[in-house]
Amino acid sequence: MAQFINSxxxxxxxxxAGTLRASGGRLARLDGFPHIKVxxxxxxxxxxxxxxxxxxxxxxxxxAGFVGAGMLTAAVCGDVFASxxxxxxxxGILAVTGKPGCLLIVKNYTGDRxxxxxxxxxxxxxxxxxxxxxxxxDVALPDLPQARxxxxxxxxxxxxxxLAESGADLATVAAMAQRVxxxxxxxxxxxxxxxxxGSPKEDRIAPGKAELxxxxxxxxxxxxxDFTGARDAMARVAERLAPGLASGRHVALLNNLGGTTPLEMxxxxxxxxxxxxxxRIAAMVGPAPMxxxxxxxxxxxxxLALDAEVEAALASPVALAAWPGxxxxxxxxxxxxxxxxxxxxxxxxxxxxxxxxxTRCCDLLIGAENALNAxxxxxxxxxxxxxxxxxxxxxxxxxxxxxxxxxxxxxxAIGVELSQTMGGxxxxxxxxxxxxxxxxxxxxxxxxxxxxxxxxxxxxxxxxSPGDRTMIDALxxxxxxxxxxxxxxxxxxxxxxxxxxxxxKAKAGRAAYLSAASLSGHNDxxxxxxxxxxEGLQG
Length: 539
Prior knowledge:
Keywords: ATP-binding, Kinase, Nucleotide-binding, Transferase. α3 links the parallel β5 and β6. This protein is an alpha/beta fold. The strands form 2 sheets. Strands 9-8-7-12-10-11-13 form a 7-stranded mixed sheet, with helices on both faces. The chain has a 6-stranded mixed sheet with strand order 1-2-4-3-5-6, sandwiched between helices. It has 18 helices and 13 strands. It folds into 2 domains: about 325 residues, Rossmann fold (3-Layer(aba) Sandwich), CATH 3.40.50; about 190 residues, DhaL domain (Serine Threonine Protein Phosphatase 5, Tetratricopeptide repeat, Alpha Horseshoe). The longest helix has 19 residues.
């Protein structure tokens, strides 16, 4: 897979150089590239306890992204997923440790324990006061003699860093770190493995599956489970964290493992609130990428019980872009709609024929969702089918409160419903279409005349005309032929939709930004939707 790197050999040093260049002078590095890769606070004066952490690269923003006032003093970076050398760790310790001493915060991996541990011994031989704690928060493999250290490490950085910044002595800082380590528990889930630069990708997670409890270096998880969506995924993670959970209030750290979109992470935050853990969570860190695994499409959750001292340490502000801060976690605040926008439901009435027609229209659009998305993906962003199907589902669910027996009010009610439930410009235009049709119906126009008036208003407001490669290319001929019957309208709509495949220049809509090559040979998805609708109605 192509990646924005120069070479595997220079990847980490190039990344550190870019991080420093963008830090505004807040960070520095020790001389010693490529073997010694240590990022330090540029303002450090050794007057307080130093915090040193690190490990293999590939977990960015950890660890260098958390170097700064209130968190780490130095980060020792290894190559991708490889522990840094003893000399590199020792260089970091010697660079930042003064009389107050130094705390090493190490994730529980053999290479990290050995290299940081030996460096600590050598530093003590220099007369330095060095303590070391080992983070083992992963609960994925309960029978493992030594659990892995994963994203919970960041809570250790933050809590210990707050005390160190305040001037606490080494014993106090180390005790805080050990308190957090003793309480934090984490587990992750992913839909895919990560892509290690220069190595073939391991495709061990089958489509339709998710891996529970995999490591931050891409190590296999405890099991592969069926994936059905965010709710079930979070429920499975919560089930693993819930046993033995301490009583009282907790903070949750919701971590993006690298390749999950912010939109998905926000959904996972909502599902965490609805999980068995939800009532116990009083505060959240994230959702954000903090301890990543390159481009892994997954997430992890870390939980820690809060007491007054731990909460104060985690809540203390730091000027680090990578640390999202700890915020209260609770129900969303909902404000009333401004005056004039609160929906006024018309008087509901039934009309079996109108109900059947609208139900049929909605079912046709819902059934065409995947086909229209696939067509839109050839020349757009692949959401036309979902947009129309979503509106159709909402409209179908609202039929029980529609004025079905009064066409004038029905057109207007459909317009209001679409304006509230259908996104994008399509929703606005269709709302205008039906609202204008309602106005025409109130003036005595029949079905065809009312719909034609709605189209005229859409053309006026939207600015599109036949030949501009929009839904109008199918809708205008269909409505013109509608007085001759639905079959005639369907034939005209199909001819109009198919003609758009030969239009290599769109003059309206999102397709106006696309090249001729992207448009040629593909029907406009909006026009295709109109054609499919009329064709379905003629049967």
